[in-house]
Amino acid sequence: MSDTDMNIHKRTAAREAADMVKSGMVVGLGTGSTAAYMIERLGERVAEGLEIFGIPTSDDSEDKALRAGIPLTDFSVHRRIDIAIDGADEVQRGPLNLIKGLGGALLREKIVAQAAKRFVVIVDGTKPVDLLGERAPVPVEVVSFGWECTAERLAACGARGVKPRADRAGSLFVTDTGNMILDCHFGPIEDPEALVSKIARIAGVVEHGMFLNMASEVLVATSEGVERWEL
């Protein structure tokens, strides 16, 4: 699939998801290239009279939302989100488990998804997999203190490669919450629940990028149109 076709498919799924939003809703605004198209479409609808509040999952999404004219709020005012819309790096066929966080916002994305009554995931046709980890590493957000020890313990969980993420300039990537991300290459994960349990017990881990049993539905855009997957 060419980059042009992929972007067309991302935009198609994103705009369809944005059109699910109704006036009066609090909307979780995802992060990444696919979510950017969703924010763009919501901005268009706000200009047409849609009345919503958004809670962004990153500083980047906040900037995009403000430029699009979307009114923002936060959890001090709204504890629950009506619908959260975000992309994913992998979607497991069947249970709709996800790997997210290659954009670096996995902690805030998971907080928003967990607070949402409905979590809609938007992807192109390259993202579905039979098992998580087939193509994407699992991002793990960690505190910087002792990260080398944390990395060793993640390797002991089965990761063949554990690398600190760098930004585009080659410097150490720092999340919006001031943490590091270790990208862990586990390969196909037969038992994601067991792996999650192991990772959660490691001191220094803030959050991981496996989103298990969280997606309400997934919109998969391909050259044939948009497929809607639900549990």
UniProtKB/TrEMBL annotation:
It holds the Pfam family Rib_5-P_isom_A. Gene3D superfamilies: 3.30.70.260, 3.40.50.1360. Pathway: Carbohydrate degradation; pentose phosphate pathway; D-ribose 5-phosphate from D-ribulose 5-phosphate (non-oxidative stage): step 1/1. Signal peptide: none annotated. It is an enzyme of class 5 (isomerase). The keyword Isomerase applies. The active site is at 109 (proton acceptor). Substrate binds at residues 31-34, 86-89, 100-103, 127. Catalyzes the reversible conversion of ribose-5-phosphate to ribulose 5-phosphate. Belongs to the ribose 5-phosphate isomerase family. This is Ribose-5-phosphate isomerase A. The gene is rpiA.
